[in-house]
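Entry 14. Ran structure prediction on the chain below.
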Amino acid sequence: MYELGYGGNKNTLRLNCERYENGEKEIPLYLARYLWLLQQYALSPFDSPEPLKMPRWPDWPGYHFDEEWL
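Output, structure tokens:
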């Protein structure tokens, strides 16, 4: 949780993590996108002669684009 930018004591972090894991709390869209993007680049072949391109973002039903920076 610290690595994802969350702060607080260990009990608070554990409770937040449990809420995400059991579906009680929805994972924020910015965080879901970030982790998805890291996975895409981890799975891409780094020895390819072509430069890496931005992958096509999936459509995630249930998430709303309410971030102010979009």
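Residues 16 and 35 are 17 Å apart (CA to CA). Will compare against last week's run tomorrow.
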